Amino acid sequence: MTAPPSGAVITGLGVSPGRAVGPVARMPEPVAEPPAGSPPTTGTDPTAQADRVRLAAVRVRDDLRQQATRAHGESRAVLDATALMAADPALLAAAQAKVIGGLSAARAVWEAAGEVAEQLAEVGGYLADRVHDVAGVRDRIIAELSGLPSPGIPLGSRPYVLVARDVAPAEMAILDTSGCVALVTAEGSPTSHTAILARALGVPAVVAVTRALDLSPGTVVLVDGAAGTVRVDPPVRDVTAAFQVSTRPHVFDGIGRMADGRRVELLANVADIAGVKPAVEANAEGVGLFRTECCFLGHTQPPSVDEQVSVYREVFRAFPGRKVVVRTLDAGADKPLPFLRLSAEENPALGVRGVRVAARRADLLTDQLTAIAAAAGAESADVWVMAPMVSTAAEATQFAAACSRAGLVNAGVMVEVPAAALTASTILQSVRFASIGTNDLAQYAMAADRLQSELAHLNDPWQPAVLRLVQLTCQAGAALERPVGVCGEAAADAALACVLVGFGAASLSMTPRALADVAAVLAATSYNDCVRLAELALAAPDARQARHAVRTELPVLGELGL
Ligand code: PEP
Ligand code: MG
Questions:
Q1: Whose atoms come closest to the Cα of 335: which ligand?
Q2: Which three-class secondary structure state does DSSP give residue 325?
Q3: Contact 302, 367 (CB under 8 A)
Q4: CA-closest residue to ligand 1 atom 4
Q5: How far is ligand 1, taken at its centre, from the CA of residue 440, in Å?
Q6: Nearest to residue 550, comparing CAs of 512, 500, 504, 514?
Q7: How many angstroms separate the CA atoms of 200 and 12, rounded?
Q8: I need a labelling partner for 115 at 20 to 30 A (CA). Which of 11, 168, 276, 395 fits?
């Protein structure tokens, strides 16, 4: 494919609002495994090949060290750790021995890294968590040997727009937001974790841009994360105009209320300790979804109870006397927790994930609940606990019993499987609350993988089927007097937030950056208006018309630039 010409606008799905301009930095494709039987380069002396491996490792180490000096925070720490690994004599010696034994240099590095990773995983603890760094070093050395661009997120001293096929959650976690001003991906969808993390970081992002990979490095692009557009070589007047549209500044005062004074709790979604600060700064009333699995992504050994207690305490401490809803581990299709040692599955999104893991590894749930209870006992936060991916009343009952054994009273469920929404009136009898995860609820109701950009139009919480499932859950909650909240990305859409409140949602939990917008729109809208908007949305024949009908009735959105 040829690169889009100057002035061209390529489109995708805007998933994180904001505008930014900068040169394209391409994230290289992952390094492929060199074929097993690949022979050494003919006519080359094995000793010379072994020396090539050493030189490549040295170059990778030096490059990483240099990049680390330009990076900040977590990215710097990761780069330093990876540089150390590149200089690891054990890895080098093993690779060189394999080259002397007849393997190609690239294959030798691949196999040697595999052995080192296995040894680290066996030792366990901190060292086991370095397995990820070994893979990073392996790929970099192989790229160096093969003359390929270095893998991983490129780091520049100047601002850049990151263009990638997709970015894994672990890579997003080290994204250096002082360098990366916007994100454009060829894959992904509004509810993929890449999109969720981009919103949390406040990085404008457009996903599912089919022509993204045709953009050449260095080309200047103007990214509009609300409109979902990428303009190539934008004329100065367009750049000026884009940055002139500034929205009226509004802040959330920390108490969610509607125009008629009715309360709606406005909470933050938090993934890890680093996510606490933005939530506090945005004046969140508390935490409506603490995604605990994000604290342990990539760990090859289960976190100990003590380790968990210290992580949870840090989060609880930031919200004294406030509500913090902790979700137990939700390993999923794109959130790998290697320590669970789950076997490969044909359909991971339909597999052993969320609360289902407890049937295999009850010890992990027990340890986690023990840690949550200990942390809750040591801090003053009002701790609630909920299980992900519940689909039957029996799972809800078992979870509530496990919570009770750990001394946790406020047990609830996430409603993100259609079966749970349809049977909410039974499920809610054994737990105290429900929180609707609209991201997965949309994926499962519409049978559309949330990571598939091609299906993003189906994976939309405005879909009539999804709205009905939300309504059913809220009705069940109202009948049983169990509070029902929403913690999926739908809550961060200010127009949809009104609809959710109209259905009866008592709380909305979202990325901290959306709190001010959602609070401002709710403050301008009465509860009765919300009920009417919910009826309007339900009466629409499809997602597009539902969104349009509701937005037309909310002129405040335009006034706030939303
Ligand atoms: C959801 O599914 O809506 C949800 C909040 O959970 P996650 O996005 O972490 O799967
Ligand atoms: Mg979910």
A1: 1
A2: strand
A3: yes
A4: 437
A5: 6
A6: 500
A7: 19
A8: 168
Which pLDDT band, with edges at 50, 70 and 90, does 389 fall under? very high
Residues having CB closer than 6 A to ligand 1 are 289, 291, 330, 416, 437-440, 487-488
Task: List the one residue out of 369, 278, 386 whose CA is nearest residue 324.
Answer: 386
Instruction: Report the atom number in ligand 1 closest to the C-alpha of 489.
Output: 3
What whole-number distance in Å separates Cα of residue 16 and Cα of residue 27? 19
In ligand 1, the atom with minimum distance to the C-alpha of 443 is 2
The token pair at 467 is 């709205």
Contact call for residues 313 and 407 (beta carbons, < 8 A):
no
Q: What is the pLDDT of residue 43?
A: 57
Q: 75 C-alpha to center of ligand 1: Å?
A: 25
Mean pLDDT of the chain: 89
Distance between Cα 389 and ligand 1 center (Å): 9
pLDDT of 147 over the 70 cut: yes
Q: Which residues contact 493 (CB under 8 A, 6 or more apart)?
A: 461
Q: Write down all domains in the chain, each with its CATH number in brackets.
A: 9-28+152-246 (3.50.30.10), 46-146 (1.10.274.10), 265-560 (3.20.20.60)
Residue 39 alpha carbon to ligand 1 centre in Å: 46
Distance of CA 123 to the CA centre of its chain: 29
**Beta partners for residue 388, in sequence order:** none
Which atom belonging to ligand 1 lies closest to the Cα atom of 439?
A: 3
Share of the chain above pLDDT 70, in %: 92
Ligand nearest to the CA of 438: 1
One-letter amino acid of 459: N
Closest by Cα among 20, 30, 13, 21 to 219: 21
Q: Considering all CA atoms of the chain, what is the largest pairwise distance in Å, rounded to the nearest integer?
A: 83
Q: Which atom of ligand 1 is nearest to the CA of 193?
A: 8
What six digits make up the tokens of 292?
Answer: 């605990």
Whole-model pTM: value is: 0.73
Which of 189, 191, 390, 435 has the most ligand 1 atoms within 8 A of CB, as the residue to mutate?
191
Which one-letter amino acid corresponds to residue 512? P
Four-residue CA torsion sign, 125, 126, 132, 137: negative
Task: Give me the amino acid identity at 284.
Answer: A
Cα(488) to centroid(ligand 1), Å:
5
Give the residue-averaged pLDDT of 458-476. 96
Annotated catalytic sites, by residue?
Answer: 193, 487
- CA dist 213 and 218 (Å) reads 13
